Amino acid sequence: MVYLFKLVELDFGEDVAKSSVLYLSVYPTAYFLCAIYTEGLFLALVTACFYHARRGRWMSAGLLGMLASLTRINGLILLPALAVEYLSQKEWSLRRLDATFFCSWLPLAGFLIYLTINYIVTGDFFTFIEVQRTHWHQSIDPLSGLKEALSWAINSPFPENITVGYAQIVFAVLGLSGVIGSFLHLRASYSVYMLLTWMTSVSTSFWLSIPRFTLTMFPLFILLGLTGHRKNFNYIAIPISSSSLAFFTILFTLGEWAF
Description:
This protein has helices spanning 2-25, 39-54, 58-71, 78-89, 106-122, 127-136, 142-155, 160-185, 188-201, 210-213, 218-227, 231-253. 71% of the residues lie in helices and 0% in strands.
């Protein structure tokens, strides 16, 4: 929350920063920020990473990016995003590059450490891929993922028709809207992070946790904070988001599948 506020404040001032934090707080899957999942830690590391990158503290940004990619494989997305941020600060001039540019590559180190842990524990660097395929039936097939989500939405009883069906589609569309909005209104590095995060979220053959994955798309909350200057938008969006948060939190607390 603190780093999101500080990051948004750099570009848009205190009011938008407050609105962004508010929308993160009432996001329908915000309960994962205090559950024993990786989203809370990952989002904290990502926002801190971008903040220090924006301030030109590249060693700090790189180390935070390394920890982020050690937390979730999606941390690898920080590598191109940080490279774009670095180059934009250098006005896209290769002549202005210096040794600090290599700090933007530190997220790769986190991933390599993770592969090493896989090998030490199981004897295979890529055990995690087999685990995803065996236990979660995951492969790269976004059209199959969409088809399955539609099938669950139409044919499943409550609440699975919402959690495994409609919600997956709604949040996939919300994420895509955020990607488009980021390219129109936000920095190039934020847009790269948004696009690649969304693509990885919807790329699988079984759309299972898209509402949870979009929680880590921090530029989405900046866009919502910008839109929040329109009071009519707040009057509609905040009650809907808060009600959804309450509903999914209750399901999660009762042990139902909630992303």
